[in-house]
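Q: Start with the shorter request: fold the first protein.
A: Done. Sequence, then structure:
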Amino acid sequence: MSAVEELIRSEADGSISFGDYRLEKKSKLDNFENMGDLYKVKTFREITKLERNGMFVYESVPGTAVENFTETDDGVEFAVEGDRDAQITVQLEDDAVYQVLVDDTDTGTMKTNMSGKLNFSVELNEGAAASVKIIKR
């Protein structure tokens, strides 16, 4: 896996891939259409942020590359790569409990805050993607 050079793209399965942690200067792409929704991505070395229809979806500090980002009623699934460990925030259901798996290792259950945000850390090494599954319990 490598950075998404076009900043964001649609995949054949309907998922999206976005982000380029290798960029030294902030880049953004607005009004990217996928499955009837409009996405905005901002990305560079220090942060990657994704919005859908003007609402927060994903953020990582520092920046990351995300592939096959898929949302369902039961959670979120994606692969993430970066050149250093990242703090990731995703938008989910308010006040709900989720199980977080990184590379199929259960990191425990976490509860979203009142605004539905879930924060977790992922250990990353450049050139190696980590798979993330967040499942509603």
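Q: Next, the second protein, separately.
A: Sequence, then structure:
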Amino acid sequence: MGIEIERKFLLTSTHWKELAPGTSYRQGYLNSTKERTVRVRTIDDKGFLTIKGLSVGATRIEYEYEIPVADAEHLLNDLCEKPLIEKNRYKITHGGFVWEVDEFFGENKGLIVAEIELESEDQSFDKPEWVGEEVTGDPRYFNSSLIKEPYSQWK
């Protein structure tokens, strides 16, 4: 069984953008309930299908499989809930960890979050100076929530 332990943060500056190139991601959801999500994603010329369970704190079950990119594109265009998630991801190494910074576009333009994957929920880590408030427990920041209430609609 795959387990994901991930914490999510807002950013305090744009300094992170100088530290790594961005990679284009496009993703959608075949199922986006809080109990389970089924996500389709393209990263450059690869396709992926990901199944995630209910988040308990910063932990949840996760399975991910590579699928043909043509199949992923078909699922994104014809079967996934809309709007799709469009973003660039920047992978930045700091303090022995890889921080993933997601800069959103489309309906979620203006939202930028950083995530760190851990081996345990209480594992300590050093936050880069550009990382601010933690939003791990706020469901508005889940990608699966951003298709139902995009960042552009937040009040």
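Q: Describe the second briefly.
A: The longest helix spans residues 69-78. The beta strands are 3-11, 22-32, 36-43, 46-53, 59-67, 85-94, 97-104, 112-117, 131-134.
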